[in-house]
Specification:
Chain lengths: 366, 366
DNA sequence: GTGATGCGTGAATAATGATGCACCGAAAGT
DNA sequence: ACTTTCGGTGCATCATTATTCACGCATCAC
């Protein structure tokens, strides 16, 4: 009981994807597996037929069921025809330009700090910090992904920002990286945002393998740490940490770090650290305003990737949300700890405006 | 729930504007009561917010739930924001132009027959007759509506075509017409497409009132008819029929009319009618090729609007689907029975090509 | 203050759209 | 000729989106 639908003609610029989207003046049909479909889904429907269906659906606003009734098509068929109509560009969506990144700030930061690449994400006003993290994570995900080569070793730190980031990273089964956590388990109570957890997820996501670092992030004292590293099989992993190709890290402050938040950084500890000149933290290690690790007892207890190693990585990307990290960030950058940065507008502005208390003793670039 | 054959469904409550649609080069934000909303729903959201949501939804293809999670909005809110984004034109749909009407044929018919206005609807190939009716009805609905002034008296005939039309007529609570059926009940078994039924529906649809004609469409004989009209209170209604401002009618043939289809038009009757020169039918009345009512017994028994009255109406719109009505149509037009016409391409072509023949042999018999 | 009134909201729910699946017929392969 | 393959289809079902509903919070009139 059907349409003698036949009258093959025209050029169907078949496209994969689902929605033909156009933005601003130009128009970009969504990508996808073109050639395949071109062959697999030939001219089953006339452009004219699709136009009619599209017209009735989008302009006349008939729902698919009614529309099908009118043209004697099943609802499923209408749905499929609409998909094809979008693919062929018979229907296009124009979305007002919304540039989620501030290119200008990016340039300025890149120039000022001589960073490899910077993403500054515009966050809508009135977001809660958590929203902001999610938002920035979302919009910097592809940026960050693009900075990491397939088949490499990637170190992943923990924290809420990175915790927000990982699930947004585009799945990519062919990236096949080796993921290592920047540090071990911080607490017996495993948090979702601990580096090992995140690493595991990332490895799964990118179809890579994960190497666990089954050590505590912090040992009670130096001896313990050394023996852990000497005897444990984790030693291997730990050493590989130093030879990774890239790292995705967050930047903390003495008052706001993984440890400060979840741990024992007593007021006393805090004072000690500040006394040592600590101004920021990365991967569990505190550094001064030159970006050099502080020579505090912490240093002897932490089991994580070393700052000196980070410096040597071809790529180290920091994900920072918020405007209270300028000092730490500046220090880390000046110290050559970072190569790239993803940050929100607020943070970017603060960073640009931040003036180190003392003369910025620009430690040479990496 | 499958194939509702043809919808006995109601009207889809056109809920104001749902989609901002743009076509071709121009762009029209969906109508609806913008002004109203503009006032009722002032700048609750900034354009920027809407852009972000629209971007994430249309370009990044997040579903509303995920998107809401990202921005900390309920799914419902996202849905509403998208609606507003469409209304404000932040999102626009471009649909390839699809001209459902054939302007050229319309011109030619208007010119050739000196009709007031003509709509020729392009029907896709391979439709069943029922589909075609639905389709033509759909696309001629606004055309027909535009020809009928508010606050006037409208006569409505029956039949499948008009039955398909009525539910497609745009709702318009301010039209406030008075609807009268072209004729009474044809049978004790009321069909959905009988004039009284259709009239009722139309009146509801246009927020007007309906005047019932509680008489049979056909009386057994002249006496009965006269007495029905004399005594019945329907007389009033019947007389008003003659004073209406507009009519929406179909055109039948002696072999294919309301009566032929549903009733007693025996072969004998048929012969009688043809003998009288009947070539077409409208509102239960048969006419010859000059458009004059045939002087057959039928004429004395029918209780319906008179052709002479139709002639006097400022507006009479015929809705015709199919190419087998050319003779009847030509006669009706030549006789001045019609002012406007809505027809499909096939019918239009047939009409233009049709050449009246002297011999009443023209009526193709089946 | 004390209701009214209106607007915006999320949760629940209804409506609508997309898709997995089995089936069918045509064309290709054996 | 028979079998296989493959695109295309409708149905049933699942997923997503729109809307209904009751509520909370503000403003406004009394």
């Amino acid at each position: 009981m059907n349409r003698p639908e036949h009258s093959a003609t025209f050029d169907s610029e078949a496209t994969g994807g689902r929605w033909a989207v156009s933005v601003g003046g130009g128009m970009s049909v969504c990508p996808g597996r073109l050639g395949r479909y071109r062959v697999k889904t030939p001219e089953v429907y006339t452009d004219e037929q699709l136009r009619v269906v599209a017209h009735l659906y989008y302009r006349e606003q008939l729902d698919q069921r009614r529309l099908g009734g009118l043209l004697n098509l099943s609802q499923a068929k209408v749905s499929r025809m609409l998909t094809i109509a979008r693919q062929r560009g018979i229907v296009r969506f124009f979305v007002a330009e919304c540039e989620p990144r501030d290119r200008d700030l990016e340039r300025r930061i890149e120039r000022k700090f001589d960073l490899e690449s910077v993403a500054v994400v515009r966050t809508p006003d009135g977001m809660t910090p958590e929203n902001k993290r999610q938002y920035v994570a979302y919009f910097s995900a592809s940026f960050i992904t693009s900075l990491i080569s397939p088949q490499t070793k990637v170190v992943v730190a923990g924290g809420r920002s990175i915790g927000a980031l990982i699930p947004r990273l585009p799945e990519d089964r062919h990236r096949g990286v080796t993921v290592l956590p920047a540090l071990g388990v911080v607490d017996s109570v495993v948090a979702q945002v601990d580096a090992p957890e995140l690493g595991r997820v990332l490895a799964r996501r990118w179809g890579g393998r994960f190497m666990a670092l089954d050590t505590p992030a912090i040992a009670p004292d130096r001896q313990t740490r050394d023996s852990v590293l000497r005897h444990s099989k984790a030693r291997l992993v730990w050493r590989r940490l130093g030879q990774a190709d890239a790292a995705i890290v967050a930047v903390g402050t003495p008052t706001n770090s993984v440890f400060a938040n979840r741990y024992v950084v007593s007021d006393a500890d805090h004072e000690t650290l500040v006394g040592c000149g600590a101004i920021g933290e990365m991967c569990g290690r505190f550094f001064d305003r030159r970006g050099c690790e502080c020579d505090s007892p912490w240093r002897e207890q932490v089991i994580s990737v070393e700052l000196e190693h980070l410096k040597a990585f071809p790529q180290v990307i920091a994900l920072v949300v918020g405007g209270d990290r300028s000092a730490a960030l500046t220090a880390a950058i000046r110290g050559g700890l970072l190569k790239s940065l993803a940050i929100d507008v607020e943070g970017a502005r603060a960073l640009l405006e931040y003036e180190p208390v003392k003369k910025p003793r620009t430690v040479g670039r990496k």
